[in-house]
Amino acid sequence: MTDVTASSFVRQDLVPERPAPVKTTGFIGFVRTRLLNSPTNILLTIVALLLLWYTIIPALKFLLVDAVWSGKDRNACLAENTGHQVGACWPYIQAKLTQLIYGFYPEAERWRVNLTFILAVVLLAPLLIPRLPAKGLNASLFFFAFPVVAFFLLRGGGLTGFGVSWVASLSQLFGDSIVNAGQVLVNLSQNSAIGPVLWGIGKLIVLIGSAVGWLIFPLTWLRDQLQMSGQPLWYDFLLTAVIVSLILFFLGGGMRTGQRALLASLVTFAGIAVVIKLMGLDRGGLAVVDTRLWGGLLVTLVVSVTGIVTSMPIGIALALGRRSTIPLIRVFSIAFIEFWRGVPLITVLFFATYMLPLFLPGNFNVDGLVRALIGIALFAGAYQAEVVRGGLAAIPRGQGEAASALGLSWWKTTSLIVMPQALRHVIPGLVNSFIALFKDTSLVSIVALFDLLGSLHATFSDPTWSTPTTAFTGFAFAGMIYFVFCFGMSRYSLFVENRLNAHRRN
Amino acid sequence: MTTEPRKPPPQFIFRLKRALGGKSGWTGLAVQIVFAAVLAWVAYEIVANARANLETQRIASGFGFLKNTAGFDVSLNLVPYSGSDTYTRVFLVGLLNTLLVAVIGIIFATIIGFIIALCRLSPNWLLARIGEIYVELVRNLPLLFQLLFWYLAVLAALPGPRQSISLFNTAFLSNRGLVIPRPIGEAGLDPFLIAIAIGIVGALALRSYARRALFQRGQAIRIWPTVLGLLFGLPLATMLIFGLPLTFEMPQLKGFNFAGGARVIPELVALLVALSTYTAAFIAEIVRAGILSVHKGQMEAGSSLGLSRGATLRLIVVPQAMRVIVPPLTNQYLNLTKNSSLAVAIGYPDLVSVFAGTTLSQTGQAIEIIAITMGVYLLISLVTSAVMSVYGWRINRSLGAGA
């Protein structure tokens, strides 16, 4: 065997070291590959750097370096007094902070607003963290209990009646309205070609209306008795609790399976009683704060949370209606959705402010904020409906068919099988429309409600703080608030989307 | 012997059930009747209340007010208008102003949006981040906020006419708005326009002829020199023969303001800037998603067929991306048009501002005016969505035929 090293084809000397490959990792490598890898890219990098130089540096200079941090009035923020170029005028924000957050809400009552904010955070935070339990209870507290409590906290006022009185009054209104409509038809029949037909229909409608009146007679009698007693609210409350609990008990299956429903109902009513007692609703409640005094971030949050809470049921109902097999309901839903989606929100707010009061009975004086809320709820509901419909369309037919095969009714199929899956699918879409809604709440300032943007606009006219940089400072501050809320929501929607798609990740 | 197939049973009851209640049958019918009764009741309540309320407020309903004299001035009118014109004229002026903002805004938003999308898709890391920051910043701030920012902060902080910012001494930006040279038509204008029209029609005809030749006979015709000649050469030639089509009247600073030139009111400038930068952020995301939606393999398949990079992009990638881009893009155009109604916040005389604002407060005809205003926007969006569904149908058909 010959020595391998002696063979002529075996190299005797070491190969010279090749130069190390161009570094593509680390900071230097990153700069080389992502910023300076070709002449065009070098040019683009220079352009981008110039762009940043002319935007970021002046912005930082305005917000921090040149900013004035303390002062009593506009003199602190004038260039001739400070001796240098003046940036943001932060004392102006300090002076106007309460106006930007509470509007003209009375100072002594502001704890109510703060308490509402805290309640909202306490209820909302566990709802947003997927790992925490009791989502159902939490959601029902946030979507049903919280709005009511917040209403009485923010606006104040008490209650004089409860379920029985409300049902009695509403049905009385309803019955009267039907009787009136019938009377109109009967009157019309006197000078009309189809007089007898109209007369017949009119009489029939009057009859239906009167029948409603007779049917609810026990209820109205009960209401009058209650109102005469010393404690109308509590007696009414007790009566409502007993009636509702019994109904739920029997609907839930009576002695066999109804105990759960009975227990849930009793616990709910006990909770309501505690709230009534705590807030003193039976004794007139807290002092009433007119909504015209509300303003700033408070109005922005009230409008957006109410819009979110009310648009969900409207959206779900419309989405189901649009997929309904009953022609009239489907056509109505489509028309309703397309109408609200086809018009700008401003015209909706104009509609709610100027047209809606004309459509309601003359003695019905609707608050300006409530009017805007109604407009926003209808508008947002139509958008929500399309998102929910997307979720419904994504559920395979087999789910509904399997539920039918198990003998579930349409309502049970929808509420237990289809809707939960559909809603889970569209959480990102829903959050996106919440963001849009939150941004759109700024439009209420056009119909004379002072939300965050409206309050900001109002502070500009204060001569005490009018300086060349006041407007920029105000916009910087309000912009940060809006950005934090919207950006937070959009990140949350991304987070949920990633969680939902966890099985698709590789 | 052939046996006749038995006729299906007539199923009258079933058909009746289907016709009256849809798939849900008698239940459906009952629900429909109840629903119709509720709707009728609501409609009755609305009409009765509106009538009673109008009577107490002493407002005469009806559209007669449209013939009354408006008596107020509008700061921007594309058609001749004065205070002695009727409310109908006001409506027309407002509508044209809305359309003006919408059309210009759409053009700018598309341009900016495509630039931002290209930035975000750029391999250059810094540029991509800048695009991302722009999109996140603009999308997460309310449009009204941005509009007021441009109008109350930026435009108000501009210097007065005497110290105005000059762009090459032709356009001047000040707190009174933007002053640009005003084009004035000369004798050569008509032939020039005709030449352009002929050029466009000719180029389109040539293109369709070349396509037919390619698809039917496999004959590739080079048309671009001819098209170039038609589009630019022809108008140039008419310009040489008939003289210049336009001359520009330059704005001159006289005293405290500009004389001559055309003035773009600051409200329009603010509205255009806000609308186009805001919508551009959404358009950028749509374009980016559309381009990313085309699979990488398409590009590779194109080059393996021997197509150049440009031809692959033009023939393979862009058409497929457009299929994803166009529907949401139209949606954004529609949004921009609807959002232009925010003009009322800064006093740009658009439809909502002059008609649902000033006219409403002067006449008090809330129902009629808001119904007309909503109807206009509804019409615009319904027409657009009808056009879009035709487009979607055609796209689906052409893709279905190819498969």
From TrEMBL, chain A:
Lineage top rank: taxon: Bacteria
Record protein name field: Inner membrane amino-acid ABC transporter permease protein YhdY
Membrane topology qualifier: Multi-pass membrane protein
Signal peptide start-end: none
Cellular compartment(s): Cell inner membrane; Cell membrane
One cellular-component annotation, GO: ATP-binding cassette (ABC) transporter complex
Single GO MF descriptor: transmembrane transporter activity
Major site of localization recorded for this protein: membrane
Domain ABC transmembrane type-1: 297-493
An annotated GO BP: amino acid transport
Transmembrane segments: 42-64, 111-129, 198-221, 233-254, 261-281, 293-320, 332-356, 368-388, 429-450, 470-489
Classification via PANTHER family: INNER MEMBRANE AMINO-ACID ABC TRANSPORTER PERMEASE PROTEIN YHDY (PTHR30614:SF41), MEMBRANE COMPONENT OF AMINO ACID ABC TRANSPORTER (PTHR30614)
From TrEMBL, chain B:
InterPro entries membership: AA_ABC_transptr_permease_3TM, ArtM/GltK/GlnP/TcyL/YhdX-like, MetI-like, MetI-like_sf
A GO molecular function held by the record: transmembrane transporter activity
Mode of membrane association: Multi-pass membrane protein
Highest taxon, organism lineage: Bacteria
Family listed: Belongs to the binding-protein-dependent transport system permease family. HisMQ subfamily.
PANTHER family, sorted: AMINO-ACID ABC TRANSPORTER PERMEASE PROTEIN YHDX-RELATED (PTHR30614:SF37), MEMBRANE COMPONENT OF AMINO ACID ABC TRANSPORTER (PTHR30614)
Protein name from the UniProt record: Glutamine ABC transporter permease protein GlnM
Organism encoding this protein: Bradyrhizobium ivorense
Gene: glnM_3
